[in-house]
Write a structure and sequence with these properties.
Layout (H helix, E strand, L loop, with lengths): L2 H16 L9 H8 L1 E6 L9 E5 L8 E7 L13 H9 L3 E5 L10 H17 L1 H4 L1 E11 L1 H13 L2 H7 L10 E5 L17 H11 L6 H6 L15 E5 L6 H13 L5 E5 L10 H4 L4 H16 L3
Parallel strand pairs: 3-4, 3-5, 5-6, 6-7, 7-8
Antiparallel strand pairs: 1-2, 2-4
């Protein structure tokens, strides 16, 4: 998405939030918020679109701010950071600096290992530029939805496993995440192979991944299995939310909640029911104006704030 069209999206979102009836009636508040966003900053200088990130709430800050690293969804096969602009704005309006990252899709732009390496390159970029953008490395959080939620969980696993770091060829940046705020995360990578014969979005994803050979590397799949690649205690303290109308990753999220509960791992799972809205997959990302979405997003913020007390 080009800079001009992104600003149009931002203007539309802010106009809705501020009750502005026309995009031409831009308020001073809108202008200030738009000026505090940096789009398409390269975290790897190779000209690839999937090596760009967006920054929210960093330019006007004169002191370090708690920092959220946002990982978008898209079923592993698509999506980009533009879909999470409004979610990032919500975090920024609540006092966080936000780094929204892209990564290569599978199999079109690469494989799963490459996507994970992209994300860790962005994580290192955050520490390398902490002084420039006032990132508080003592208070770093990860936020992800759907496939992005899976990548956040895998990030957590990698942080706790030297074996996983060696396998993916990674080093850790010089900070320790305080928490993981996840919306409808995918959790069962191996189960995707069995969905290709079904119908719906998850079946489509499975077919693309299967036809692209994404599941052929058994060693890779073993290292991406959240249920076996690391001890369950690695996921202590995570926060997950879902909705009763989610037909995409709800089964995954419920399975992981049950797994952590049975293993005695402290975590939080919040399940949202409709109060009049249609709470589809990642409803709080795609429809932030819903009353239920406002509650869900505020819950994510409250979770992160609780870890800073």
């Amino acid at each position: 998405m080009k800079q001009a069209s992104k600003l149009l999206v931002i203007s539309s979102i802010l106009a809705l939030c501020l009750g502005v009836s026309s995009l031409g009636a831009e308020t001073e508040a809108e202008t200030e918020k738009e000026a505090d966003i940096l789009f398409d900053v390269p975290f790897v200088d190779d000209g690839e679109d999937y090596h760009l990130l967006d920054l929210f709430g960093t330019r006007s800050s004169e002191e370090k701010l708690p920092t959220v690293i946002e990982v978008h969804g898209g079923g592993f096969i698509g999506g980009n950071k533009d879909s999470n602009i409004d979610h990032c704005l919500f975090y920024a309006e609540n006092g966080f600096s936000v780094v929204s990252v892209d990564y290569r899709t599978v199999p079109k732009e690469g494989d799963f290992k490459g996507a994970v390496q992209d994300l860790f390159a962005a994580y290192h970029w955050v520490s390398d530029h902490a002084d420039e953008y006032h990132f508080d490395l003592e208070h770093v959080f990860f936020s992800g939805d759907s496939a992005g939620g899976y990548y956040c969980l895998l990030t957590d696993a990698i942080w706790h496993s030297e074996e996983l770091r060696d396998y993916f060829g990674l080093t850790l940046p010089p900070y320790t995440p305080l928490g993981y705020a996840l919306t409808a995360p995918a959790t069962d990578m191996l189960a995707n192979k069995d969905k290709a014969d079904g119908e719906g979005p998850d079946a489509h994803v499975a077919k693309v991944l299967l036809e692209g050979g994404a599941f052929e590397d058994e060693e890779l799949m073993e290292h991406m299995d959240l249920y076996t690649a690391v001890e369950p205690e690695a996921f202590a303290g995570i926060y997950m939310l879902s909705s009763t109308e989610d037909t995409t990753t709800r089964e995954d999220t419920l399975k992981f909640d049950q797994y952590l509960t049975e293993e005695g791992v402290d975590h939080t799972f919040v399940d949202y029911e409709s109060e009049g809205s249609r709470l589809i997959h990642v409803f709080n990302i795609s429809n932030p104006e819903y009353p239920e979405s406002l509650k869900a997003n505020q819950g994510l913020v409250d979770y992160m704030r609780s870890l800073m007390e």
